[in-house]
Recover the amino acids of this structure.
């Protein structure tokens, strides 16, 4: 039972973190029709900048400064990069973000080196909060959850209650019409792109020290975030939330399950002939965990091409 | 002239849809733009708004708008209602209307005016706009654009696919809007409506203007109707 509680707790933290990344990506896609392949690179940039700034000014300053900084970088990239490419169509835009991901991926090790940097959890939050299932639960995990929930509330209120939020939601389905009603859609694009990058930067600040801040972090998380956005339905905020939490729980659960695949399937009532493919059934679920998001992605796309809550086909 | 279009060309990708169109609309007029499907009428409205690649002179109240972005054109006082209505389906009816307001000081046309023109919108104010019927969505799309207090309203096929009763409502709304001093450029397939409410009309074919005149002159010109309008 406690084991389940731990899985739920960790799954929720991980899921909310994934949402922080995927919501920016899905908003940008919904409005501009472009999958930003560099999105996870802004997450990595956030983690490395947080490392540097926390050394000079402390973690709390980094928590405020870095999202703003990464958001500004994102806005500049959109305004002076993407916007000029926009007239050549979506493929050009996609290739632009592809190139951008490589540039950030090369610049980061140039500045910070190729090995992980010692970005640490702040001392004030570096203690075990309580014990669950025989594990000490770090206070910092709870802090991550609090930041993620606060972010979610602010984002929700901004989209539901403000005029700009209305413009953004309308532009998710009909960006051209929004412009013809007199709203400066290119400016809104820049704002949304910047805000999405700021959220990715924030995720980098709070996750970089809980996990590892190293030059490969964008690649490993990027693919999962794409899977989430497609699974949830391109452009759907609620879809991104549901898919993030789903992947968060499923992956946390499968990592902590040390059970062989064959045994797990039999527990689920799926009969397998263990005499055939003996080696396959001996693999533990934990080792299969990394592939689970993509299996879910393919299942969702096969059964429901629009994604869980999307309105258009991927 | 309120709107003056000279030598307007427009393209979808590499294919040219408008081949040098001249068109004028005077303040207070209802001008109808007729023609068969594919003649270029819808593209004409989009090109004026800046929604497609275009070339040529477009003047609105003496200002050259041929190179402006859609939101700049809209802010000068041009309102556009597209053929597909482009309702924001996830937002409520009221939110759709509010988005028609332009940034800056409030205009002459507000929520109460929209509800007065079509009371059903007040009843469905908090319903998702995607749940409205086709006719209700058409009224919503027109009222949403009117919320921006346009001086010139361009409406693309507002009666298409609607039941006769809704067609009548749309027609009444257009007449009521014109009575408030709004100039109207109407793309319409139904000849009877165009003949009844417009002061002047243009007929388009193959991306060019093929006839220009009054409803009476078109009614008396069977050859133009046969060649360019009747199916």
């Amino acid at each position: 039972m406690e084991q389940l509680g731990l899985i739920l707790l960790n799954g929720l933290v991980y899921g909310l973190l994934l949402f922080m990344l995927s919501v920016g990506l899905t908003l940008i896609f919904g409005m501009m029709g472009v999958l930003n392949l560099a999105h996870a690179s802004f997450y990595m940039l956030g983690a490395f900048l947080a490392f540097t700034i926390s050394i000079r000014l402390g973690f709390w300053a980094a928590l405020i400064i870095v999202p703003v900084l990464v958001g500004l970088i994102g806005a500049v990239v959109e305004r002076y990069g993407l916007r000029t490419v926009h007239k050549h169509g979506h493929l050009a835009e996609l290739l632009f973000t592809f190139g951008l991901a490589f540039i950030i991926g090369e610049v980061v090790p140039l500045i910070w080196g190729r090995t992980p940097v010692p970005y640490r959890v702040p001392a004030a939050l570096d203690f075990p909060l309580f014990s669950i299932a025989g594990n000490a639960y770090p206070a910092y995990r709870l802090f991550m959850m609090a930041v993620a929930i606060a972010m979610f509330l602010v984002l929700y209120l901004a989209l539901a209650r403000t005029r700009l939020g209305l413009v953004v939601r309308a532009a998710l389905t009909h960006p051209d019409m929004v412009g013809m009603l007199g709203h400066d859609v290119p400016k809104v694009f820049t704002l949304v792109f910047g805000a999405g990058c700021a959220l990715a930067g924030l995720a980098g600040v709070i996750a970089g020290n809980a996990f590892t801040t190293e030059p490969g972090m964008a690649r490993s998380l990027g693919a999962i975030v794409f899977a989430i956005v497609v699974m949830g339905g391109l452009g759907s905020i609620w879809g991104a939330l549901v898919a993030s939490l789903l992947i968060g729980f499923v992956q946390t659960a499968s990592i902590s399950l040390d059970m062989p695949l064959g045994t797990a399937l039999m527990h689920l009532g799926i009969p397998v002939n263990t005499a055939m493919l003996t080696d396959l059934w001996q693999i533990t679920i934990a080792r299969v965990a990394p592939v689970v998001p993509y299996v879910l992605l393919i299942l969702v796309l096969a059964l429901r091409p629009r994604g869980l809550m999307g309105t258009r086909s991927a | 002239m309120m709107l003056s279009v000279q030598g307007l060309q427009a393209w979808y990708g590499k294919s040219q849809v408008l081949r040098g169109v001249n068109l004028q609309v005077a303040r207070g007029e209802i001008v109808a733009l007729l023609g068969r499907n594919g003649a270029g009428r819808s593209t004409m409205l989009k090109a004026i708004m800046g929604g497609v690649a275009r070339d040529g002179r477009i003047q609105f109240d003496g200002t050259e708008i041929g190179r402006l972005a859609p939101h700049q054109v809209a802010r000068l006082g041009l309102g556009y209602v597209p053929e597909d209505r482009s309702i924001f389906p996830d937002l409520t009816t009221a939110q759709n209307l509010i988005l028609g307001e332009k940034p800056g000081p409030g205009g002459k046309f507000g929520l109460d005016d929209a509800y007065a023109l079509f009371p059903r919108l007040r009843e469905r104010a908090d319903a998702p706009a995607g749940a409205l019927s086709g006719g209700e969505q058409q009224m919503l799309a027109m009222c949403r654009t009117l919320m921006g207090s346009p001086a010139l309203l361009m409406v693309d096929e507002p009666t298409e696919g609607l039941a006769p009763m809704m067609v009548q409502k749309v027609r009444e709304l257009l007449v009521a809007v014109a009575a408030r001093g709004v100039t109207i450029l109407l793309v319409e397939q139904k000849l009877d409506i165009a003949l009844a409410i417009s002061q002047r009309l243009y007929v388009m074919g193959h991306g060019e203007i093929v006839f220009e005149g009054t409803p009476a002159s078109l009614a008396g010109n069977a050859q133009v109707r046969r060649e360019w309008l009747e199916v």
User: Anything to note?
Assistant: The radius of gyration of chain B is 17 Å. The mean pLDDT of chain B is 94. Chain B has one domain: 3-229.
